[in-house]
Amino acid sequence: MTATLTVLTAGYVGPRTASTVSLLREGDAVVVVDPGMVADRALILGPLADAGVAPEQVTDVVFSHHHPDHTLNAALFPAARYHDHWAVYQDDLWTDRPADGFRLSPSIRLAATPGHTAEDISTLADTADGLVVLTHLWWSADGPAEDPYATDPDALHASRRAILDLAPALVVPGHGAAFAPTPGTPG
């Protein structure tokens, strides 16, 4: 069994900012990654409905990091467990655990990838087409080569190299369309 990916909305950065919001499914796991800022909540809920998923069916929400542009619409998913770099949250239960290596399903796992913030994590999903990485290590296919908001540029580049060493088939960046890494992908 492998996971399937649906990008619900591709983000952007400029005069306005939106997060790339994605859906991963495997078995009973229905995972939304980075339900952050978008121009209209319909840009999340419409594609989710088109994928045959009601907000109440989402089992897990993953935050790559805690900036509002990646978390703002978390409350759309009332039955979900919420995952960040150090815990799982559901209703009034806070369960500490490191994210690195934590599995949401057999094919979906989390990885610590600091750099943009010290707490950044990426979601790795084994799919029929290969490894997919949902991450804020890149904003888009073009980088930027140097993240102007990175709290630790050296850690960012080390995390990028670690992800690229996994030879992902596809990267879903924080603010852009999914892309297949090339030798020119900023490391």
Report on this structure.
- The chain is an alpha+beta fold and 187 residues long.
- Helices cover 14% and strands 31% of the residues.
- The protein contains three helices and 14 strands.
- The chain has helices at residues 42-50, 68-71, 153-165; strands at 4-9, 12-13, 17-18, 21-26, 29-33, 60-62, 81-83, 87-90, 93-96, 103-105, 108-112, 121-127, 130-134, 170-172.
- The strands form three sheets. Strands 1-4-5-6-7-8-9 form a seven-stranded mixed sheet, with helices on one face. Strands 10-11-12-13-14 form a five-stranded mixed sheet, with no helix packed on it.
- The longest helix has 13 residues, at 153-165.
- The model has no long low-confidence stretch (mean pLDDT 97).
List the helices and strands and how they pair.
Blueprint: E1 4-9, E2 12-13, E3 17-18, E4 21-26, E5 29-33, H1 42-50, E6 60-62, H2 68-71, E7 81-83, E8 87-90, E9 93-96, E10 103-105, E11 108-112, E12 121-127, E13 130-134, H3 153-165, E14 170-172
Parallel strand pairs: 5-6, 6-7, 13-14
Antiparallel strand pairs: 1-4, 2-3, 4-5, 7-8, 8-9, 10-11, 11-12, 12-13
Write down the Rg: 15 Å
**Range of helix content:** 10-25%
Report the principal-axis shape. globular
Largest sheet: 7 strands, mixed
> What is the H/E order?
EEEEEHEHEEEEEEEHE
Strand order of the largest sheet: 1-4-5-6-7-8-9
- In the predicted model, the low-confidence regions spanning at least 5 consecutive residues are none
Mean pLDDT: 97
Q: Please give the oligomerization state of what you see.
A: single chain
The percent range for strand residues is: 25-35%
Which structural class should the secondary elements be placed in? alpha+beta
Record field, number of beta strands: 14
Task: Figure out the total of helices.
Answer: 3
Terminal CA distance reads: 31 Å
